[in-house]
Amino acid sequence: KAFPVNVEKLNSLPAGTTVTLEILKKYHMIDENMGKVKILGNGKLTVKLTVSVPCSKSAAKVIEKAGGEVK
Fold it and tell me: Is residue 18 classed as helix, strand or coil in its secondary structure?
């Protein structure tokens, strides 16, 4: 099962970051042993990011609204 991460948690990442499983672990948003995540659309995003992990449709809208992209 994928571990949920709310999109608003991504605000602590530097602008321009490509969000991967490794980045989420590096910034302590998920535990080292987690193999799957899903970004959920709760909250606002103020940073432009490229997201390369699975996300919900609502999270994709929030990410794109902030100028980012979902791959």
Answer: strand
Instruction: Please check the confidence at residue 52 and state whether its pLDDT lies above 90.
Output: yes
Residue 23 has pLDDT above 90, yes or no: yes
Please list the residues that pair with 19 across neighbouring strands: 51
pLDDT of 27-40, one tens digit each?
A: 999 999 989 999 99
Q: Which residues partner with 5 through β-bridges?
A: 39
pLDDT of residue 4: 95
Give me the residues paired with residue 3 across strands: 37
DSSP string of the chain, one letter each residue = -PEEEEGGGGGGSPTT-EE-HHHHHHTTSS-TT---EEEE--S---S--EE-S-B-HHHHHHHHHTT-EE-
